[in-house]
Model the fold of this input.
Amino acid sequence: MLNTINILLLSFLNLVHYKKLLLIASTQFLLRFALCMPLGADLMLSNFYFSCLVFSTVCIAASGFILNGSSVISNNNSNNSEKPLLDEILKKRTYYIFLILNLLGVGIGFIISNHIHKPDFFGFFIVFSAFLYLYASFISKIPIISTILISIVATFPLLIIAFIDLIPAINPTNQSHQTFIFSIILNYSFILFFIFLIRDLVNDILLIDSDKKRKRNTLPIWIGIKRTSHIVFCLSIFMLFAVVYYNYKFFYMHTEAVFYSLCFVLAPLLLFSVKIWDSSHKNNFRFPLKLIDFVIFFGSCSLLLFPLSTI
Done:
C-alpha cells in the first residue's frame, strides 16, 4: 500500500512538472525580494498576498501541465504492476484535478484583484487559464504558432508580478522609478521568451519521432532537423548579443555580476551555439537541451545580482 502511494505521488509530481513549478515560484520570489525591494520599488501587495499570488500562478500553471500531459505516465512506472491504478487515478481523473487547480488559482486571482481595487486585472488570470486550456486542446497541434505562443505564456509569471504588484502602485511622484523597474522586468521577459523558444525548438527535435506517431506537425518535421538547428543557432547568437548588451547596460561596473554572467550564462550559451551548429541527428541535441536548462536556471538566479546595482 505504501509503495502504491509513493508511486502515485511520484507520478503526480512528474505530471505537474514540479521542477518547472519550483522554478516559477522561485523566480517570482526573486523578482520581488531581489529586484523590486532592493531597488526601492513601491509595491501593492503584502508578503501574504504576494505569496497568494505566487500560489495562484503555480496552481494555474500546474493545471495546464496536467491537461497537456494527461496521456503521459512517468517512464519510471511504465513497467510497474500498479500501472492500471495509475491510469485510473492520474489519467481518467485528470480533468477533475485540472478543474480543482484551475478554479483555485483563478479564484485566488479574483480575490487579489479586488484586494488591490483593480477588478479588471482579474482578466489576466482568466486569459492565462483559458490559453493553457486551448493550448492543450488544439493549439499545440499547430506548427510554429504553438511554439511561439507557449513561449509567450512562459513570461506570464514575470509579467503578472509587474501588473499586479508594481504598476498599481505608480503615482506622479514615483512614476519614473517604477517605470524603470518595469522596464527591467520587460527585458527579462523578452530574454525569457527567446530562451524558451529555443528550448522548445530543441525539444521538438528530440521528440520528432514521437510527434510523427502522434501526427503532430512541428517545425523539425516540417522543414527538417538541420534547418531547424540553423534557426536555433541564429536565435542563440541573437541571445548572446542581447545578454552582452544587458550586462553592459546594468552591470558593467560590477565585476562580480559580470563574472557570474560570463560563467553561468554567456559561456553555456556560446557552447550551446557551437553544439547546435554541428548537430544533425536528434540524439546530438540532448546535451544542448541540458545546457539551455542550465541557462534558464542560472538566468533566473541572476536576479540576485540586482542588489549590487544599489551599492
The longest helix spans residues 175-206. The radius of gyration is 21 Å. The chain is about 75% helix and 0% strand.
